[in-house]
Each structure stands twice: as C-alpha cells, then as structure tokens.
Design brief:
Chain A has 2 domains: about 5-125 and about 300-320, Rossmann fold (3-Layer(aba) Sandwich); about 125-295 and about 335-345, 2-Layer Sandwich (Dihydrodipicolinate Reductase, domain 2). Chain A is built from 10 helices and 14 strands. Chain A has helices at about 15-25, 40-50, 60-65, 80-90, 105-115, 130-140, 180-195, 285-290, 300-315, 325-349; strands at about 5-10, 30-35, 55, 70, 90-95, 120, 145-155, 200-205, 215-220, 230-235, 245-250, 255-260, 260-265, 280-285. The N and C termini of chain A lie far apart (about 60 Å). Chain B is an alpha/beta fold and about 300 residues long. Chain B has one domain (about 5-85, about 150-305): TIM Barrel. Chain B has helices spanning about 20-30, 35-45, 60-70, 85-105, 115-125, 130-145, 160-170, 170-185, 195-205, 230-235, 260-265, 280-290, and strands at about 5-10, 50-55, 80-85, 155, 190-195, 210-215, 245-250, 270-275. Chain B has an 8-stranded parallel sheet. The chains are: A alpha/beta (about 350), B alpha/beta (about 300). At the A-B interface, helix 1, helix 2 and helix 8 of A face helix 1, helix 4 and helix 7 of B.
Chain lengths: ~350, ~300
C-alpha cells in the first residue's frame, strides 16, 4: 500500500460509478487511477478525458494496478464474485447498495473483509443524511419516549412507463426491482434506527410498469421487545419530482416526521435541555447540515466516501457506519419480504 | 467582456423546487400549473425593474419561451440566462437506458435517424474524440432549441454536470463547452457550481477564462463546499473580468432573512445575484436589499441598502 496518496479503482462506470469517481477524486490525498467498464465507449471516454487507465474487466485492473481501495458500482449480481477477488488482492472496498443478492454471500464477505482487516462499506447514504442521523440520535436519547411505531416511505418517478427492453434492472436474478433497488434504502434506514426486525408480515409486492419485478413494496416489521412499523416504497409515482424519503417515528412522548430536508417534532412536554418546546418544533436541513469538502448530488454522497477514506486512514479497524455486515442484514430482510409475499400469494391461490 | 445583469430573475419557484421543504414545493407546483400564473409573476418582476431572466430547460420551459416569443413586443430588451440541461430528465433516462442510451434517445429523439452513437455503444467500438465533441454539441443544441430568437447573454451548465466534470478533472469538456457557446450562441459560457473555490482554481490552472461562475453564496454556507471561509478567500482574490460571479441561493432556502442575506452578499466581490420569488412584496423587498452594481467591494462593509431607499 502506498504511504500517502490513496490510489482508488472504480469498477463499473454507470451513473453511480462516475458519481463516486468524481467525488472521491476530489478528496485530499485520494486519486482515482483506474476504471473498469464493459463498454469500450465509456472506457475510452474516461481514459481520454478523465486521464485514468481504463480496463474492460475488473480482473485485468486488479491484476495490473497498484491500488489501495476499490469502489464497486456494478449490477449487484456480479458483486459477490468481484468482492472475493478484491479481497484476495487485499484492497479496501466500498460497494453500491444493495451489496449482494443473498444474505449468505453478504455474511461471508463481511467475515472475509473483517478478518483481513480490510475496510468495508455499503452505499446506503441515508445513514449519512444529516436529518436522518439527527433523528436517530434524538430517538436514541429518548426525546419522544418509548418508540411504539414507525413508517419508512420512499417515492420517486423512476419507472413511469413500460421498459423498452430488458436490462439488468428487469429481473430479480440480476438485482432489479423496487425491493432491491429502492426498498433496501427504507429497510436500511429502519435497521439503522432500530436494528434488524425479528419478523416481517403483510408484505405486498405490486408491479405497475415492470413485467417481471415489483414497482411498489409494502410490509410490516415486528420487533420482539420493541416497536413495529411499516415500509411503503413506490418508484412509479411521478407526482414526486425527486426521490423522496419520509420517516415517521411515534413514541409515547411525541413523534418525529422527517424527510431528507428537515423534520417536524411534536412533543407532549417541552424539552428545554435540547431547546424544544411543547407542541410542534421545526428542524431544517439548514440547521443541521454538515459541510463537506466537495458537493455532487447531495451532502450524503460525499460524507459517505469521506467516511470510507477516513476509516482507511485510521489506525484501528472499527466497523464503518454502514459495513458489509449491515448490508448483509438489509439483504436478509429482503429475503424475508420475498418469502412472506410468496406465502401470501400461495394462500390466496 | 460584456457586463452581466446585476439582478437576474430565477425560476425555481415555478417548478416546485424548494430545497428546504417538499411540502412547500408541492404547493408551488399547484399554484404554477398554468402559464398565466407564471406570467403574472414575471410581469410583477419586470414592473419592479428586473430585465433579466434565468430559466432551466425543463419540460415546461419551452412553453414559457414560446409565450415570450409570441409576445415579444410586450417584453422588450429582456436578457436571457438559460441553464442546461434539465437534470431529472436525464437521471431517469440514465437509470433506464444507461448513460449512452440516455444521450442517444435525447439527441436523436426528433430526427428519427438510426443513431450512430447507439450502434457504437452496442457494437463495442471506441468513440473518436471528434464524435464525442460532436455529441456534446448536439446535446447542448438540443437543450438550447427552446431559447431560439431570444437574447441569450449567458448559457449556464447545470451544477450537476459542471461538478461531475470538475471532480473527474476533465478540462477538455470545459474548453469545448465554452467555445461552442461563444461561437454558436454569441453568448458567454456560464458554469453553475456548488464548489466555487475548486472550480475557479481549476479553470485558472487550465487556462480557461471569460466564464461566468454561478454559485450558492449565503451566510450559513449552505450548498457551499468546502465552506464559507474558502468562498470568502476565493472571491476576494477573484478577477471579475475573467470570472464574473453570480450568487444564487442567497437566502439559503429561507434560512437567512433577506436583510442579513444581502448585507453578506453585498460585502463580497459578487457581480450579479439571481433570485426567485413569487409575490410582489418579496420581489420588491429583495431588490431593495441588493446593492447596485459596482458599489460592492470585498473590503467594504455594507449597511442594508433597504434602510436608505
């Protein structure tokens, strides 16, 4: 490993790949030196204009490049295999969500990377959103008392017409569909706040425009000695201009309504220590945002990569804020969702 | 280089863009669903003395431009500051078709021609650099079509593209963009960014100048990476003849009251301010607070001009 500059390779130069490439490339002491993508158009563009060495496959890049870390931004079906090779080379890894498509593969990778002392992180960026992380802190401190219920919702107008031709997003086998691509964000947010649910029930998966995968996801999560709550995710709702996350947490002393841009807190009694009045309180993103060294698409995108780099530089090997183990836990919940939905469908037929 | 307007009227309020509140954004979308209500606000802004408009090339902008053209005599000497592209159109297309597929469907949507680019992308050929440059120009021209026959002063590239290319460290794209805007539109190239200090530093090192930089500039550092202090330093040493600066998000989505917000901006080496508002009061109030062109300097500390007028 080089001593000062971190050399980073990007595997997969799609929308997320080039976003992460651009961001991490601006962080002090970090340079993206190599990129892989199956499209030679993309690799020749990046080679020519962004001055990186480009490869058509990750194996060649891992073989030839002196790297410290990789960003894995490929369709999730490939990630298990890719990450095993990354591990064999002893590189730290940041991987786009949903990480992998089976919890067994996820747990295996988590163990492998942890045992080797390699920094590992999954790109669930809600954990780096200033509003959601403040909400988590406030809930954890008991601001709204004992938590009884939650709702985690996501909306977007991503899939609003029949898909023209099959790409990797069209099948579950490749990691397509609203469960893997979008609901995992809502699931991870709940996992971040309350841990992994003990049971899921009442799952319903509904296609709108997609043929073989769902576009709407809903489910109820239960905790043995804790709250219960629901997720509702719809990526075929074009009444939302931008992808929108909404979180509601209800406790016996009040409730929190949060989205990426701010939160409203209702308290039965005032909390002068934290500066909250009885009744409604507004907290805006402009009250809680953290500054990042570079901005592209959202503070959380930079914050998560900044965290990844800081963890690589740190001497100890504490888990990252969203480790492979966390990613495996989110995928375990998706397995529960598919199982629960299939059982219901069987019963109804 | 031509001076840019001190005050430019923005468009976020019309399109349900509110960085702080999605609820408010949805209310605004409802209010501005018809063109008449949008033009009522424009008329108010023009009555208040504004003569410059920034408009993003989104789905609804074409109809707005059509009406401005149709009523050209009612809107004389209006200066245009378009921003391209409309990012969300591309975001969804890219999810669906990949980056090249998205570019392909936008550029070749109207021509009906079988796209050379699509064939290249699928066939696994390497693109020649002149093809890439050509493709980028076609994208710009596609976005700019709706602004035809309007008096375009600056063509701004949206921050999501500017900052993506900035992070990728891709100077050639900036060179080509600036040349194309100057040559084809006789306008100044403009770059919107959330990273002004880094952008200006890179532009200088790449030898690119004569570019308008539009950036969020507000007291609390919202959408200002890496932070307020770096902006102060960068602006104080900036040569406005090379990089005129236009401030946006001056109120930080409403977090800073107008008098404070413009006291801060007026004290900086900033040549122009773009703001959006939807009521007469807000428009007139804001205009009262923005110091006239040429009076601001990085050293001076300004009292709110509103108090004097």
């Amino acid at each position: 490993m080089s001593t000062n500059t971190l050399n980073v390779g990007v595997i997969g130069a799609g929308r997320m790949g080039i976003t992460h490439h651009s961001i991490i490339n601006t962080l002090p002491g970090v340079t993206v030196t190599a990129v892989t993508d199956p499209s030679s158009v993309v690799t020749s563009l990046l080679e020519k204009y962004a001055g990186v060495r480009a490869y058509g496959d990750h194996a060649s890049m891992l073989e030839r490049e002196p790297l410290d870390a990789v960003l894995v931004c490929t369709p999730p079906v490939h990630n298990h295999d890719i990450l095993r090779q990354v591990h064999a080379k002893g590189l730290h890894a940041f991987v786009e969500k949903p990480f992998v498509l089976s919890s067994a593969a996820g747990h295996e990778l988590a163990r492998m990377f942890d045992d080797a002392g390699l920094v590992n992180q999954v790109g669930y960026m809600n954990r780096f959103n200033d509003v959601f992380s403040r909400a988590r802190t406030l809930v954890g401190e008991g601001l709204i008392g004992k938590v009884l219920r939650f709702r985690s919702e996501m909306y977007s107008g991503t899939i609003v017409r029949e898909q023209e031709k099959a790409n990797w997003r069209a099948t579950h086998a490749n990691g397509g569909g609203a469960v893997y691509e979008m609901a995992t964000h809502a699931i991870d947010l709940i996992h971040y706040l309350f841990g992994r649910p003990d049971r899921v029930g009442g799952t319903s998966l509904t296609p709108v425009f997609s043929r073989d995968v769902e576009d709407i996801v809903s489910s109820t999560f239960y905790y043995r000695n804790g709250p219960s709550g629901t997720i509702y995710v719809n990526w075929s709702d074009d009444s939302f201009r931008k992808p929108t996350n909404k979180l509601e947490v209800f406790g016996d002393r009040g409730k929190i309504l949060a989205d990426q841009h701010g939160m409203r807190i209702y308290l039965r009694e005032a909390d002068p220590a934290r500066g909250f009045a009885a009744g409604w309180n507004d907290v805006y993103i402009t009250d809680v945002f953290s500054s990042v060294p570079f901005y592209l698409r959202g503070i959380e995108y930079t914050a998560q990569l900044d965290h990844f780099v800081a963890c690589i530089r740190a001497a100890d090997r504490r888990p990252t804020r969203c480790s492979f183990a966390d990613g495996a836990a989110a995928i375990a919940v998706t397995e529960d969702l598919f199982r629960d939905h299939a059982a219901t469908v069987r019963e109804m037929n | 280089m031509d001076a840019i307007d001190r005050v430019v009227f923005g468009d976020n309020q019309f399109f349900g863009i509110n960085h702080m509140s999605q609820e408010k954004a949805q209310q605004q979308t409802l209010r501005f669903q018809d063109l008449d209500s949008i033009f009522a606000v424009y008329d108010t802004a023009f009555e208040a003395g504004i003569r410059a408009v920034m408009l993003n090339s989104n789905d609804r902008a074409a109809a707005i431009c059509d009406r401005f053209r149709a009523r050209a005599s009612a809107y004389p000497s209006l200066a245009w500051y378009p921003s391209i592209p409309y990012p969300h159109k591309y975001a969804n297309l890219v999810s669906e078709k990949g980056i090249l597929g998205a570019v392909n469907s936008v550029v070749f949507k109207d021509s009906g021609a079988l796209s050379g680019l699509g064939r290249l992308a699928q066939g696994g050929f390497a693109l020649l650099s002149r093809d890439v440059v050509q493709m980028a120009k076609m994208l710009i021209d596609t976005e700019m079509r709706m602004f035809r026959e309007l008096d375009v002063r600056v063509v701004f590239l949206q921050n999501i593209i500017t900052d993506l290319l900035l992070g990728l460290n891709a100077p050639d794209f900036f060179v080509e963009y600036c040349e194309h805007v100057r040559r084809k539109y006789g306008a100044l190239p403009g770059l919107i960014t959330q990273n002004l200090p880094l952008l200006r530093e890179r532009l200088e090192s790449w030898g690119i100048s004569g570019v308008v930089i539009c950036a969020s500039i507000n007291k609390i550092g919202y959408f200002m990476s890496p932070g307020v202090e770096a902006y102060r330093v960068a602006l104080a040493s900036n040569d406005p003849a090379k990089y005129p600066v236009m401030a946006m998000a001056t109120l930080a989505s409403g977090a800073v009251p107008a008098p404070e917000a413009y006291e801060f901006v007026n004290g900086l080496n900033v040549q122009s301010v773009v703001f959006g508002a939807s009521s007469r009061n807000h428009i007139v109030e804001t205009l009262r607070h923005i110091a006239p062109a040429g009076t601001a300097s990085p050293q001076a500390s300004f009292a709110p001009v509103g108090a004097a007028s």
